[in-house]
Amino acid sequence: MVRLSAANKSMRKMREEQKTFVTAVDFGSSALRAAAAIQNEDGTLHILGVEETGKRGYIKSGIITNSTDASMQLGRILLLLANRIHTQEDIQATFSSIGGRLLQVKNVPVKRNLLTKAYITKKLLDDMQKESIEKISESYPDMIGFNSEPVRYILDDVAQAEVPTSTQKAQILQADYNVFFLKKETWDKLKGSFDRACKDMKYCWAKPIPQMTALLSETDSEEGCAIIDFGAQTTTLSIYKDNYCQSVKMVPFGGDHITRDLQSLQISFDTAEKLKKGFGYASPRYIKSVQQLRMQSTNPNNPSITIDNTLIAHVIKARLDETVHP
Q1: Could you tell me the pTM of the whole model?
Q2: Regarding the domain delimited by 104-182, which CATH topology (the fold level of the hierarchy) does it fall under?
Q3: How far apart are CA 285 and CA 309, in angstroms?
Q4: Over the stretch 113-135, which tens digit does the pLDDT of each residue have?
Q5: Helical spans, DSSP H, in 167-215
Q6: How many angstroms separate the CA atoms of 20 and 65, rounded?
Q7: Among 308, 246, 227, CA closest to 275
Q8: Which residues does the chain have with pLDDT short of 70?
Q9: What confidence score (pLDDT) does residue 218 get?
Q10: Distance between CA 106 and CA 108 in Å, rounded?
Q11: Separation of alpha carbons 262 and 258, rounded Å
């Protein structure tokens, strides 16, 4: 299986620089999350701490709508994370991931005719991978590619999944890449948030890539499967096969929409959120016993109301049906 060697090398270098831990910030559909971890020698991670910003309004459907607020929250969450893991270090560099409404993936082939059989050099492979990203901007001037995953290589009509070594020769070399891209405006706001916060973004992943590494076995990603990511404002379907993310689809519905649906029962947003998390089921058929829940109402003429957990489940199921079967 081909991996993002540049990102892995960057993580190892960052670990050596920071001596003790690496950090990552996830730009979710409505807020930021950050984590710190120690990378073990076998590549696994030991999580030291996680922080999440409670403030919302600067990210909508995974798109930064207020760069100033986003940079302030970025600096704040890294400070909270440093306190969480009891370090005196000022976290200056971090990895990041982004998904959201505008994330797309496209297969991009890059071909080279070397005229005669020649050894495959690392520089040649790096140049081809760079070209795959540049082709996105050429085809879509308002877009920018930022992750390029080599899917397969073809050396003189012979395909292989492994990265060619410096001992292999070919005259005609082709590489197929899955390139993740989004709008330049979105990317500029992401980079601008780091610049304003005086932080260094070491590497940015399209969210489906770390999700595959974290959640799927090699058998799952090889034979084919899907991950449904239910976010606060968006739900993303990522399709995986042959150890790569082949397709990404998003619908603009998430957990916040369920909360607002419950809020229409004349309760506050906070109360609706607590009901969803504490008593919510994806369907009434999962409820074993009916519970009557009494709470404060937002209706001044009816200051308290009673809602049973089956009604909550019906509301949740209706929105989930719309989300999964749009």
Answers
A1: 0.76
A2: Dna Ligase; domain 1 (3.30.1490)
A3: 11
A4: 999 999 999 999 999 999 999 99
A5: 184-196, 208-215
A6: 34
A7: 308
A8: 1-19, 326
A9: 87
A10: 6
A11: 6
